[in-house]
Amino acid sequence: MKKLTLKEIAEHIGGTFNVDAEFTEVCIDSRLCKPGCLYIAIKGENFDGHDFTASAFANGASAAIVHHAVDADGPMLMVEDTHKALMMLAHWYRTTFDIPVVGLTGSVGKTTTKEMTWFVLNEKFNALKTEGNLNNNIGLPRTLLRMDENTQAAVIEMGMSNRGEISELSLIAEPTVAIISNIGVSHMENLGSRENILKAKLEILDGLRENCPILLNGDDPYLAGAVIENHPVIYYGIDDKTCDFRAINIEQCDESTEFDIVYEGKTQHTVIPTIGRHNVYNALAAFGTGLQLGVTPEEAVRGLAKYTPSGMRQRMKIVNGIKFIEDCYNASPDSQRAALKMLSEMKADRKIAVLGDMLELGTISEESHRNAGLLAAKTKVDVFMTYGERSLASAEKARECGVREVYGFTDKKALADKLFETLKPGDAVLFKASRGMALEDVINDLYGRMK
Predict the structure, then answer these.
(1) Which of 17, 47, 131, 438 could serve as 77's disulfide partner, Cβ 3.0–4.6 Å?
(2) In 51-80, which positions are buried (b, 16+ CB within 10 angstroms) versus exposed (e)?
(3) Does residue 329 contact residue 435 with C-beta atoms inside 8 Å?
(4) In sequence order, what DSSP letters do the residues of 137-177 get, joined into one string?
(5) Which fold has domain 315-450?
(6) For residue range 9-35, what is the model confidence (pLDDT) as tens digits?
(7) CATH architecture of the region 4-81
(8) Separation CA 350–CA 95 (nearest Å)
(9) What is d(CA 127, CA 284) in angstroms, rounded to the nearest whole number?
(10) pLDDT per position as a tens digit, 296-315
């Protein structure tokens, strides 16, 4: 972060301060404060950061922003609402940078697209990116406030659970390029329909700077039909031959995917070190974004080749001759479908799918879990196992559809026991579930037994 003072930020976000101070970092956790930090006392549902202001100063904080009196001594800026102050500060600070800012959202694939886009841009720029899942109205401002004199580009992920949230984030970040990866059924519980999810995702246009482009998945029927005004629209895809950036000749290898990108009458061979057709879409978005911002095709594919899956997203690991696909960060009907298709295209003696509950589906939960069992049959998995109460419906449907080996579990140890008994060298096993199911516990149990 560039060096700022309380006096300087008060001129832009309002408030009154007792004594001026300089800072070069923003922190909302008093335990992480150190000299040079500005501590912002955020009030949450279960805590009030104001209670820890004295601790922040004790740990070395140079200043604090508060919205009511606190029992602490030090340079402080008093504002009406500290959370709003954080967002206002981030927005003003972002406007002090004349750099490309990529804003991206979507129902599935946001984080992978963000990571791939960062690798592409980092071939040409010193690029900043959203770390982890800091994609809400606290995390996004903190990401923007990490920009400094050396930052030449930023890739900012925007998440949401309700209408209005993407609009708020986009207005803070003011992207110069926007990406919407797809319109799925995540957050159906809150928004009720895909049409409403589309409206929520299109709120990214609210902050997109005038005449700046938006990249859309042209194979997504909702995005392909979206009406966009005052912004160039760039489509990427696989099936729609009219897309501006299109992947052809897709070949899935054990731990990578190769394909050619056709654009502007040219063809660029590309290799990404991850598997699955859905990741080809993510790579297309990253490639197209890079070219919009002056990255050469050669730089873009070099960046894509450096991508590494993060967290528990589609990591491939071979243990004792068994291919493990760890994809336990999140799950929705769309991402589950993509994961099962990916498994079906893998080279393996047997294909085993382990699916856990999908959360936050509201009224479509029962139907979605039964559809998962149908998909398991259609993609010809050899062994189908489920974990969780909701996923018992998946197991039941898979049996009805003719999958020969089906097991439903609500106990992790029982699931791990059955998997350990079942798995053999030459198998490929997919683990896919919502984050709340912590399916990685089963994976780690198996790894421990296989040592």
Answers:
(1) 17
(2) ebbbbbbebebbbbbbbeebebebbbbbbe
(3) yes
(4) TTHHHHHHTT--TT--EEEEE---SSTTHHHHHHHHH--SE
(5) Protein-Tyrosine Phosphatase; Chain A (3.90.190)
(6) 999 999 999 999 999 999 999 999 999
(7) 3-Layer(aba) Sandwich (3.40)
(8) 54
(9) 19
(10) 999 999 999 999 876 666 77
